[in-house]
Amino acid sequence: MKITSILIAFSAILLPILAQPLDKRTDKDRQVEFTNDSNDVKTVFGKPYAIYQPKVVVVSMFMLERDPWLKDMDFVHNVSIPGLAPLYPQVHFTTDYSIMQFTTGEGEINAAASVSSLLLNPLFDFSKTYFLIAGIGGGESSLTTIGSATFAKYSVQIGLQYQVGYNEYIKTNPNWTSGYFGYGVDNPWTYPSNVYGTEVYELNENLRDRAIQLARTGELNNGTERNVEFRTLYEEDAAKSSPSIVACDVYTSDNYYFGNELSDYFKSYGEMMTNSTDSKKFQYCSSAQEDNASLEAFLRMDLHGLVDFSRIVVMRTISNFITPPPLYANDTVGYFNDVDKGGIQASLDNLVNAGKPFVEDIIKNWDDVYSHGIKPDNYIGNILRTLGGEADFGKESFEEA
Question: Is rRNA-binding one of the keywords (predicted)?
Answer without folding.
Answer: no
